[in-house]
Amino acid sequence: MFLHLGSDILINKNKIICILNLETSSLKLTTQKFLRNINKTNNTKYVSPKGKEKSIIITTDRCFFSPISSITLLKRSINKED
Question: Domain residue spans in the chain?
Fold first, then answer.
């Protein structure tokens, strides 16, 4: 199954490692360092314009910054058929 992250981005749910809420997780020093490091790599994709992101989705391939909240993404990912 796939998860829609916004815009035209769909990712395979099996590749998701974690989904972080940027509003709460960015308060932690360790998370801030992690976010700085991944922004330096080419493995990030912004689903919306910078500054509009609410969550970060870390997959086995890359990291996605999404304008959709982590709670909404969680609700989308729950499927009774899985």
Answer: 2-77
Tell me the pTM: 0.83
DSSP conformation class of 27: T
Give the tens place of pLDDT for each residue, 10-38: 999 999 999 999 888 767 788 888 888 88
Task: Supply angle C-alpha 23, 30, 32, rounded to 5.
Answer: 50
Give which of 2, 27, 29, 32 is closest to 16, Cα–Cα. 2
Q: Tell me the helix, strand and coil percentages in the chain, rounded to 5.
A: 35, 35, 35
Which two three-digit tokens encode residue 35? 């976010």
